[in-house]
Structures are given as structure tokens and as C-alpha cells.
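Inputs:
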Amino acid sequence: DTGVSQDPRHKITKRGQNVTFRCDPISEHNRLYWYRQTLGQGPEFLTYFQNEAQLEKSRLLSDRFSAERPKGSFSTLEIQRTEQGDSAMYLCASSLGGRLAYNEQFFGPGTRLTVL
Amino acid sequence: AQKITQTQPGMFVQEKEAVTLDCTYDTSDPSYGLFWYKQPSSGEMIFLIYQGSYDQQNATEGRYSLNFQKARKSANLVISASQLGDSAMYFCAMREPGPTSAGTALIFGKGTTLSVSS
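Outputs:
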């Protein structure tokens, strides 16, 4: 399977715990995006990388959130001191680079986080 | 102001009928891209169709077509001959080039739930 993969698919944690999610993009894609989707809403942008550089972060990304893409391949998203409001689906997407508006983003299956 | 507006929370259609899902957008950039994604109950986002702001013709992909009215800033998705498997959430999204060469992420609307009945 050469699509975007995410691990784990589901995570249940207690409030205050730290969690880390992993995303493996399509191998030739140099851009990687993280989105968060709450129930009944569209995905909201969190952050994105071009190769290993984190180029943009949304205001949604509080200081409890950190993302890395150390070698320009897979990425991790860590949430420290989780809160119940962090419960959501975390989606990863990848695309080719370029300034053209058209660069289809391919999404992974998501990680569903539940904070108790 | 919302960048992407989808005013229909839910739509109901019978099999084999056509359905139009509405989307309006707001941007001041002359160069942008419009996308439609399908999200079944399993959760994955499936790309359906793309329309570039400079494209002269409406995009089509199989049973999907995009009714692009640039002056009205609308990009409605038309699904012809609906099938039971079309039941899902549908999201309209926009991407603008942005201030750097890296562009911007997708901006999504709130989505429309489509239910197809037999």
C-alpha cells in the first residue's frame, strides 16, 4: 500500500497524559500537513512541513502541541498534558510541492483521539 | 468571514437521481484551487474533483462534475445518477497560493451530509 498511513488509528488516554501520533506520507511527497477534525465539522489546519522544515503553524496549535518531521519523511504530532477538548480525529495529508494551486492532498485514515 | 460556506447540512436523494451540493467561497487572490472531498463513515477523506481558478471549463470526473461560477464565487458539486455508496459527508475546500512559494493548506467548509435511499 503506497498511500498515507497513520498510527495508531485510535487512542484513548486520560486527561493530563502525553500522546504521540505518527504519519507516513506517500514517499515522493515533500509536503506534509496535519489537520484536526471534530465531530460534525470540516478538518481544520494545524501545521505543515515542506521536507523537514515546519513552514506554517495555525493558531489552533497551542504550545502543548509539537510536530516534527526530522528527516523529511515521516512526521510525529505530540500533544502534552492532554485535555478533553483535544478529543478529535487527527488527519495527516501529503502532497507534492510547488506554488501552483493544484496539488492534490492525499489523506491518511486518521487517528481518533479520545481524552477521558 | 468564512472562506468556504456550505449551507446545506443535509441532503436526501433517491438512487439514480442527480444531486447538487452547494459551495461558495471567498478569496481576493486571482489564483486558487477548489476541491471536493468525500468522507464516508469510515473516516478517510477521498479526493473527488478539482477546479482551478483559471480553468475555462467545468471539471468533470466520472459521475462528478463541478459547476464553477467564478463571478458568483460558487463551486457546486453535481453528482449524477446517485448510488447508495454515495452516502457520506462531502466537503468543499480551497487552496490559495499564499505569500510564499510553499502555498497554503486546504481550508474546508463544514460539510454536507448526503443520504441516498433506494
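Remarks. Chain A touches chain B through 31 residues (CB under 8 Å). The longest strand of chain A covers residues 88-95.
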